[in-house]
Specification:
Helix content is 46%, strand content 11%. By secondary structure, it is of the alpha/beta class. The N and C termini lie far apart (79 Å).
Length: 689
Amino acid sequence: MEVMKEGAGTQLQKESKPATQPTRKRKLADPAQATIDEATQLMLERAHELDIDTVFDRAENMKPCNIGTQGTCCKNCGMGPCRLPLPKSGIEGDDERKGLCGATPNTIAARNFLRMIASGAAAHSDHGRCVAEVFLAAAKKQTEDYKIKDPLKLLAIAPHFRVDTTVEVDGEVVDRKLDEIAVEVAEKALNEWGKAEGELLYLQRAPKPLYEKWKKTGVLPRNIDREIVEIMHRTHIGVDQDYKNLMKQGTRAAIADGWGGSMLATDLQDVLFGTPYPLQSEANLGVLKEEYVNIIIHGHEPVLSEMLVTVAQHKELQDYSKSKGAKGIQLAGICCTANEVLQRHGVPLCGTFLQQELAIITGACDAMVVDIQCIFQNIANVAKCFHTKIITTHPIAKMEQDNVIHIEFDEHNALDDAVKIIMIAIDNFTNRKAEVMIPPQKAPQVAGFGVEAIEYHLGGIFRGSYVPLNDNIINGRIRGIGGVVGCNNARTKHNDGHITVVKELIKNDVIVLTTGCNGIACAMAGLLTPESAAVHCGPGLAEVCETVGIPPVLHMGSCVDNSRILLAATEVVKAGGLGTDICDLPAAGSAPEWMSEKAISIGQYFVASGVYTVFGVGLPVSGAPVFQKYLFEEFEKLYGGMWDLEVDPVKHARKMIAHIDKKRHALGIDKARERILVDMATRREMASA
């Protein structure tokens, strides 16, 4: 990228190029081909005018390694990398493909797949560990900045940790103090990462037939950290060389993520910050406000962003921002930190993963505060072209660029840290020099559909239940359930896969549960409002949405909140009439534009939970056809779920619908119940019968 000096609008002055700089002209992404989102197209055009490099342009100039995308490049020792491309004749002669140590394509692809699971599980589970540590500090009153906001959720999860909520005193059963319960829950939660014996406590929350499958196949996780460490050991040169045995450990680690670290993170965040319930907000770059101090929070861990939301509302800081010429403070979010503060506070969504550079290019971003995961290092380079302050906050996530400020988060001084960050942003408001260009595009949304909120919407406060959902699946108004989640990927058209898959599903009466950047994409496309059902849904789903007052796409939170989808599926099983296990449900999972190793871990724990799971873009297993067949076919015999791949988003959705129809047939509910218009005479007969 050519670094620009700050200036006004397109009058930014280019620094002269060094004499040694190559003159080869780089390719620029075509905005119309790069994204379906109009705001993103506008900001790409502006980036090109200002000669600012973005991820979309880099994707044009750097082609992926063909062997790497096949999953058969091994660099796990110093003798490699060993590259094993597919022979032109297909799988014939596959025995001749070997690494220097003799590793086969199946072994190499499986090892690479496992290492992606390990990294993804580590990312989610380390997030959960941080939340548990803050939770323990709050429970022990070691910090005044965090307090338990949802005691009812604490009482609800305590039994899963085998923590008593009552105690017998003089022969009488009385309630235990909340503080005592909180400390014991926190200590037992933290123990899940490294206990010496036993199994993860939350595994018992799964349907009993699913738990028994895990037990029979030997994949019950022992503790969270151990399963990740064991993957790294097994994939070291000369250790595990059986792709089936490798995937057994991959499954164990993925379950430790979905039913362990991620689920713990979600539950403890709910207790600490409040359980989400539906609220209104907006989404896309248009949520930024030119006359306000704009602070963008980006990443995945909400412990600091919760404090930023609290502090930004303080009258003293609002008044201070006005003394600098602003009308106030505007918070907006990117990625899953955005989803966390959206679902609890209504903070608007600024954009998805691929829009983070573009938010700075608006010229209106006074500070971008980042924590962990999915953060481009290039945002620091883009910030040099404007006045934006990049502030890192986590000890494990720093940047090498000299224009980045690091303010390390400490739960004991969280409010003070938040004040310091917001003061930096306010002071920076007066440093704006480039012309501000905020796209007008933004869309209304309703988000915050946790497991409890869905239950409430379906049955009310006194009789909350998943039975109405099951009844409408059985009677055919709702065809089934689609879990559509995941990132954006610059190797495919931004948001196109997400929106095409979701629209095809709801058009065919499949209700969609979403998290992560798919949720943000759906919000930007206007699919997170109850009114969208009448426009985009089939008649059955539209009728249900209108009656209950919900959108056809239910935004359930951040990527760790995929655990909410698992628990919602468990509640559907408990409600009855749709089988005894998650694999019996007319349901399917999808990640149309995945890119993160976290997505592989998520996909694996959904497959291991009995969910047919389709990925878009590609999977790094095609170079090992035998291993790919094992994932795509044989896994279903073990867990009831399996992997699949479909790049075309319409075909992708139709594969999900075909699977849902297969499950409806197996349950004997594939024929829609005949609907009869009943006249008043017949109604009287029915009433008197």
